[in-house]
Predict the structure.
Amino acid sequence: MKYYIGIDLGGTNIKAGVVNENFEIIGKAKTKTLCPRPAKEIADDMAKVGIEACKDAGISVDDVEWIGIGTPGIADNINGTIPYSNNLGFKDVPIRQYIQEHINKPVYVANDANAAAYGEFVAGAARGATDAVCITLGTGVGAGVIIDGKIITGRNLAGTEIGHMVIEVDGPQCTCGRKGCFEVFSSATGLINMTKEAIAANPGSILKEYAEKDGHTSARHAFDAMRAGDKAGKEVVDKYIKYLAAGITNVINIFQPDILCIGGGVCNEGDPLLVPMKELVAKEIYTKMLTKNTKITVAELGNDAGIIGAAFLGNAQ
């Protein structure tokens, strides 16, 4: 049996897992990232949780084939560096060198969205595909594109930033500096902002009651209100689905993948989200006249996608 370490480096937590050749996580460990602090200290802790995960799995670090890391920002796998990560405050960090000071194994590095997408590709909703796109609807919109089994990164290792394609010129401001990005509308943050706007415009809506009861506005409130027959809630859901379908249609028209999977908490809404979204996409894609088109499905691995994908980055080269 072969074993691999996958490390999911986040702004809040560093999570590591030992994954066997059957894509099963057999040991885990984690610690706080504690940003901001020196990159070398964070790398030292990454190595420590990797070693702890091996102990949890009941194996030695010597039994591991390699280590894979998924990181926010730009990742240079050729040089084993993180050239830039705004979330972590990193610039030109030699992450491979730092890890190998503790664990003398090959180290591979990729953007965290790409690592999660690769996890779905090898072991989740996109397994069996040749070409796949995996989109995560969270605080932002993260994505990974895999063509012929390889992760596409582009010229500056920052390609496939699907969340930052504009779908409404001069629309709401995005954190990237542009206006009207897909992320502005289709992230969980975008759904929350739409809900807040609906509450302000419709103070008699049940949306306001939900927000006051919970003490904050949630991405699920619009769907809950819609199910309760609330007009404002339905309008928010319809608007959200319209923009989500527009962005997904664009992605399918560009890449024509075998499978496009979407993840994130909003996908827990199930059919009220997926059925109308798929219907809109089916009407709008360029290849709608063909019988064989991209399969749209929900991601399967949840929070484990990043660990599993990172663990198998050695096969993604």
Notes: DSSP finds ten helices and 13 strands in the chain. The chain has a mean pLDDT of 96. The first helix runs from residue 39 to 57. The chain has two domains: 3-122+304-315, 128-299.
